[in-house]
Design brief:
Order of helices and strands: HEEEEEEEHHEEEE
Low-confidence stretches: none
Shape: globular
Structural class: mainly beta
Strand content: 35-45%
Oligomer: single chain
Number of strands: 11
Number of helices: 3
Radius of gyration: 20 Å
Largest sheet: 11 strands, antiparallel
Helix content: under 10%
Length: about 240
Amino acid sequence: MDAALQRAPGHRVVVFNAFFFKLSLVGPCIVELEELKTSERGYRVSQVTLKQLPTPAPLDEPSPSAYDPSAYITKLHIIITTTNKQDGFKFAPLDYKQTPPVFDGMKLSKFGLAGGPDVLRIYENQEHGDKGELWHAFEWPNDREPIDAKSIACFADIATSPRPFITKEMMHAIRASLQFEIAFHRPPTNPTKRVLVKFLMKNIIDGIMNADAWLYDQDGYLLATARHHIAFSEKKPKKPSL
């Protein structure tokens, strides 16, 4: 997302589509950016690809002539639409019935990023789990980072990877993201201090969970909507030791 925004000063993200090809590893990577379309009306469509070596290793001094694309594996493929338009047509569907989750009653989650609450505070409420619904809240500690489009994408990705509420077998299944989409609304006037997320697991078909999420700020303003498709597979049995 940073790569696309750096090439488009004054733009904001409208839609973010991510396709996960292979598991990314913590380590050096290559990010390729290609502009697919630039509109005179202020829209821009970019393609961003994240690549890694089969075994991530420290990169040599960056040099376009030394870069061999065939040596790298594509891990993540992203299509980003941005705009610099500040106004335009507005319409809210009349049958929109979602309401923001309530922070009161949420508890600090045991699930989190490396570093725990010192890195990111994650709260949750699982009282609606029997309906496939999960509530989350996210805060950066001590307001050390602004909550922007990158933060919202991070929170949506974490929120749409919950423990499923179907069967005991599925709770231990291997989960892999296939596709992830975020549609951003106009940024709110007031600074965002906390993001509340309502996640709804709609169904699981052929081992693929389809889920929707709504992301609000602390004032109940709808920041973005998200859709996540996650594949479930059984863990392979361990080979017997000889």
